[in-house]
Design brief:
Blueprint (H helix, E strand, L loop, with lengths): L1 E6 L4 E8 L2 E9 L1 H5 L6 H22 L9 E7 L3 H17 L4 E5 H12 L7 E6 L4 E8 L2 E7 L5 H11 L6 H9 L23 H13 L5 H26 L4 E5 L6 H14 L2 E3 L3 H4 L3 H14 L16
Parallel strand pairs: 1-4, 4-5, 6-9, 9-10
Antiparallel strand pairs: 1-2, 2-3, 6-7, 7-8
Helix pairs in contact: 2-3, 4-11, 5-6, 5-7, 5-8, 6-8, 8-9
Zinc ion (ZN) binds next to helix 4.
C-alpha cells in the first residue's frame, strides 16, 4: 500500500510517502525565517505560506519516492490540533487529491503522529509505556496501556515546555524557535543560576513553567551583568529537570518500564542525555525518535495513518479541521 500524507498544522509544510510502512520520502519546507522577525508564528502568514509551498513540496516528495501519483492508494492529512488556517490548507489539498484521483482519504491527530514517530524508529516497541509528549503547544504525560487505550495522567498547568523555551529565548533575544536557540547558546554557558523547578511535591505529575518564565524576567530586570549563555544553560536545566523528574515519577507510579518521548522538545540533547542517565539509574528504558522525526514532519503522520488504516476505516470527506483536538 502506498500512502501520501500532508502535515501543515503550524509553520512546517511537509509531505511524506510511505510504502507498506516504509518511508520513501519525507520533505519539509520550513517558514522559520519568515516568522523569526515576529518572534513567533503569525497564523495568517503561516496559512498563506502553506498555500505557496504545498505544491512544490508535494512534487518533491513524489519525485523522491520515485512513484507516479496514480500509484498512491490512500491520502492522509493532519486535521488537528493546530492553527485553523494552516490545517485547512493541508486538509483541503489532500481532499482534492482524494476526490480527483478517486482514492480514499484518512485524517490523523497531530499528537498521535508525534507518538508514532517512535514506531517508525522502533517497529518492535510494545505497550505498555509512558509517553512524554512535549512540543510548542503541549506538555502531557500519557499511559499507553495498549494500542487502543491511551490515558492522560499528567499535563502542564500553564505554558508548554516548548512555549517556555520560545518565550524565554525571546526575552534573551536569542531568536526563534527558542528551543534550538537556547540549546545552542547553552553549549557555551554554565548552569549557575538556580531558577525554580515547580510543583515538586512527591506524587504530583503535573508540570508548570510560568514561574520559571517570570523568574527569568525578574532576573533580567534586576541584573545587567550576566552571560546570556549561562542563563540559557540554567533555563535548559530547569526545564529538563522538571520534565525528567515528572516523567520518571509517572513511570514509577504506574509501574511501567518503558518511557517514550515525542514532540519538538524531545529533540533537545540535554533532555535526551539526562533521561538516559536517569533510565540507567532507575532501570527503565527510554525511547527517542531521531531529531528530524521529533519536530513537525509528515513522515510521522503517514505512519500513524498507515497503522490506523490497518486497524480500522477511512475518514468521511466532510470531516473538518479541529484546532483544539486532544489525544
Ligand atoms: O512538535 P513541534 O515541532 O511543533 C508543535 O507541534 O508544537 O515543536 C516545536 C517546539 C518549539 O517550541 C521549539 O522551540 C521546540 O519544539 N524545540 C526544541 C528543540 N527543537 C524544537 N526545544 C528544545 N530543544 C530543541 N532542540
Ligand atoms: Zn508538533
Amino acid at each position: 500500500m502506498i500512502l501520501l500524507a500532508v502535515e501543515s498544522s503550524c509553520d512546517e509544510t511537509s509531505v511524506a510517502v510511505i510504502k507498506d510502512g516504509k518511508l520513501l520520502s519525507n520533505k519539509t519546507a520550513t517558514q522559520i525565517d519568515i516568522h523569526e522577525k515576529y518572534g513567533g508564528v503569525v497564523p495568517e502568514i503561516a496559512a498563506r505560506k502553506h498555500l505557496e509551498y504545498i505544491i512544490p513540496v508535494f512534487e518533491k516528495a513524489v519525485e523522491e519516492a520515485c512513484i507516479d501519483v496514480h500509484e498512491i492508494d490512500v491520502f492522509a492529512a493532519t486535521y488537528g490540533p493546530g492553527l485553523v488556517g494552516s490545517l485547512l490548507v493541508g486538509l483541503s489539498f489532500v481532499k482534492g487529491l482524494s476526490i480527483s484521483l478517486n482514492k480514499p482519504f484518512i485524517v490523523v491527530n497531530h499528537l498521535l503522529g508525534h507518538l508514532y514517530a517512535n514506531f517508525i524508529t522502533f517497529p518492535d516497541l510494545k505497550t505498555p509505556f509512558i509517553v512524554l509528549l512535549v512540543s510548542g503547544g503541549h506538555t502531557e504525560l500519557f499511559l499507553m496501556e495498549n494500542m487502543d487505550t491511551i490515558k492522560k495522567i499528567g499535563q502542564t498547568r500553564d505554558d508548554a515546555a516548548g512555549e517556555a523555551f520560545d518565550k524565554i529565548a525571546r526575552m534573551l533575544e536569542l531568536g526563534y524557535p527558542g528551543g534550538p536557540a537556547i540549546e545552542k547558546a547553552a553549549e557555551n554557558g554554565s548552569d549557575i543560576h538556580k531558577f525554580p523547578r515547580s510543583l515538586r511535591k512527591k506524587n504530583n505529575i503535573d508540570f508548570s513553567f510560568s514561574g520559571l518564565k517570570t523568574s527569568v524576567l525578574y532576573f533580567l530586570r534586576k541584573n545587567d551583568r550576566f552571560k546570556k549563555e549561562d542563563i540559557a544553560a540554567s533555563v535548559q536545566s530547569a526545564i529538563v529537570d522538571s520534565l525528567v523528574e515528572k516523567t520518571f515519577l509517572a513511570a514509577e507510579k504506574f509501574e511501567v518500564e518503558k518511557i517514550v518521548f515525542a514532540g519538538g522538545v524531545a529533540a533537545n540533547k540535554h533532555l535526551r542525555n539526562q533521561a538516559q542517565i536517569m533510565a540507567n539509574k532507575k532501570k527503565k528504558r527510554v525511547y527517542f525518535p531521531p531529531v528530524e522525526l521529533c519536530t513537525d514532519n509528515a513522515g510521522m503522520i503517514a505512519y500513524a495513518a498507515y497503522k490506523k488504516i490497518k486497524r480500522g476505516s477511512y475518514s468521511p470527506l466532510d470531516i473538518n479541521a479541529v484546532p483544539s483536538l486532544t489525544l
